[in-house]
Amino acid sequence: MALGYVRPARPEDAGEIARIQLLTWRTAYRRMFPAHVLANLDEAYLARGWTEAITAPPSPRHRVLIAVEQGESATTTVGFAAGGPADEQALAPEEPALGDEVAAVTDLLVEPRWSRRGHGSRLLAATVDLWREDGFQRAVAWAYDADEAMKKFLTSTGWEPDGAGRALDVDDMLVPQFRLHVDLSPPTD
């Protein structure tokens, strides 16, 4: 029987995070982005960025977590989440700053072959727990309009669209996104 858990990422995890990011984008986003854009993504470049995010985050409230599946014979990194204080990348066009009490998901991906095993839920729950410890009151996340799986996942966990939208310019192709938000108040029993 396999055991799934989440832990803070370590520098030696950067390569696996980059591999998962690249594979997941090329699989899940193949109909959203031009093929040549996905083909030209560089895994080593992504790994360097993840190493920096893990070893030199912009603040103690910025974190990278990984999801692990531990089986009888192997332990496998299967997904990751990154987030921290909402910055300019969390904003809609011409929107003022969201405030110090707002956190943002910057990445939340599970490798497709490991999906539907609870890894995304564990990553999101661990991220929310850390945000609450850090005093955040609300969180936001951007999703691609065409990413039905992410929309369904986030809304099933209590996130709701907040009305903000934007479009990313990917090689002269506009890829629409919408923003979701959630209240981080601890649940009352």
What does this structure look like?
With 189 residues, the chain is α+β, with helices and mostly antiparallel strands. It has a single domain (3-183), classed as Gcn5-related N-acetyltransferase (GNAT) (Aminopeptidase), CATH 3.40.630. The chain contains five helices and seven strands, in the order βαααβββαβαββ. Strand 6 and strand 7 (173-183) form a beta hairpin. The model has no long low-confidence stretch (mean pLDDT 89).
Topology:
Elements: E1 3-8, H1 14-28, H2 35-39, H3 43-55, E2 63-70, E3 75-85, E4 102-110, H4 119-133, E5 138-144, H5 148-156, E6 160-170, E7 173-183
Parallel strand pairs: 4-5
Antiparallel strand pairs: 1-2, 2-3, 3-4, 5-7, 6-7
Helix pairs in contact: 1-3
Order the strands across the largest sheet as they lie in space: 1-2-3-4-5-7-6
- Count helical runs: 5
Describe the largest sheet: 7 strands, mixed
SSE string:
EHHHEEEHEHEE
CATH homology group = Gcn5-related N-acetyltransferase (GNAT)
Strand content: 25-35%
Give the helix/strand class: alpha+beta
Label the overall shape: globular
Query: What is the strand tally?
Result: 7
Q: What is the name of the CATH architecture? A: 3-Layer(aba) Sandwich
Return the average pLDDT rounded to an integer: 89
Radius of gyration: 16 Å
What is the CATH topology assignment?
Aminopeptidase
- Which regions are unreliable across 5 or more consecutive residues at pLDDT < 50? none
